[in-house]
Amino acid sequence: MKEARPALRYAKAVLNLAKDSENETLVNDNMKLIVDTIAGSEDLQTMLKSPVIKAANKHKVLDVLFGDKVDNIVKGLFNLLEENKRMMMLDSIAKQYSIIYDYHKSMQVAKVTTAVALTNELEDKIQAKIVALTGNNASIENIVNPDILGGFILRVGDVQYDASISNQFNELRREFDNSHYIPKI
User: Fold this and answer.
1) Cβ neighbours of residue 38 under 8 Å, at least 6 residues apart?
2) In a designed cystine with 155, which of 48, 111, 120, 159 is the match (CB 3.0 to 4.6 A)?
3) Who's near 63: CB < 8 A, 6+ residues apart?
4) pTM value?
5) CA 130, CA 32: separation in Å to the nearest integer?
6) Can you name the residues that pair with 138 across neighbouring β-strands?
7) Parallel, antiparallel, or unpaired: how do β-strands 138-144 and 108-114 relate?
8) From CA 42, how far away is CA 125, in angstroms rounded?
9) Where are the alpha helices (DSSP H) in the chain?
10) Residue 148: phi, psi to the nearest 5?
11) How far apart are CA 101 and CA 79, in angstroms?
12) Which residues of the chain form CATH 1.10.520.20?
């Protein structure tokens, strides 16, 4: 966690540059691509954190991976991280950028837990429900958990709406446990 504060500073600087050139959404998409790519490759994670590999070599790898896929602002970040020998912070910076970008755009992250993956149609319905509940849009993060059996659990900020089948079963169980129903024998 010692890199959290510097990562936030870098992310703020990148967001300010992106705002000046009106590319903050494109840069956010680039940062999400970077986070997903790093999360998907243990070799890349190890390479970025390795103190043995030179920053210039790490920069070359990032150029090959992201070359024409990222904006010039992100390429400038790669250069700056190479100069300051802080390439290992790239993942943290990208995550921090997305957080402050969402805050800047008044976007929230809505975590939706479902038994199966969401379809585009369901995402649109959930987005409408989020706007109705909070008044703001939210980016939807789908978490698949077959243990909830069906339905969904929606969490936006500190508000949680549980419409899962497993929750309904639990409520029914509590109702039976609390009732004083004595069956006829």
Assistant:
1) 44, 45, 48, 90, 91, 94
2) 111
3) 75, 78
4) 0.64
5) 22
6) 108
7) parallel
8) 36
9) 4-20, 24-39, 42-49, 55-66, 72-83, 90-104, 120-134, 165-178
10) -80, -5
11) 22
12) 4-104
Cα gap 15→169, rounded to integer Å: 46
CA 59 to CA 89: how far, in whole Å?
13
At 28-52, the pLDDT tens digits run 899 999 999 999 989 999 999 998 9
Residue type, 181: Y
Which residue has 């992100």 as its token pair?
74
Residue found by looking up tokens 């994670």 in the block: 45
Between CA 151 and CA 126 the distance in angstroms is 12
Dump the DSSP string for 103-130. Answer: HHTT-EEEEEEESSPPPHHHHHHHHHHH
Q: In the beta sheet, which residues pair with residue 45?
A: none
CATH class of segment(s) 4-104? mainly alpha
Query: pLDDT of 40-98, one tens digit each?
Result: 989 999 999 998 999 899 989 999 988 888 888 998 999 999 899 888 899 999 999 88
